[in-house]
Amino acid sequence: MTAAEYRHLEPVVYQWFPDDVAEFRALHQVVNPRAPLRAVGEARAAGLARMTDDEVLSLAAALRAAYLQRPSEVDRLWAIVCARSAA
Known about the structure:
The model has no long low-confidence stretch (mean pLDDT 87). This protein is mainly α. Helix content is 71%, strand content 0%. It is globular.
């Protein structure tokens, strides 16, 4: 799909990656104990916990842009968050 074809997802993307830091953390800083890759979820949660509010807002904006314009970049952005957990 092209970026233009992803535009219809914009409302969902804004719900999943909100501009509100507390809401973003509530959605993404929780580890799902039944997730198949629990270690990844734990690394994401730990990485988010180490990020400042400004960094979380930047991440949310980057994730929204990636999902709508360059979906192949999403995993790279989450890898950066996971790397923060090891820092």
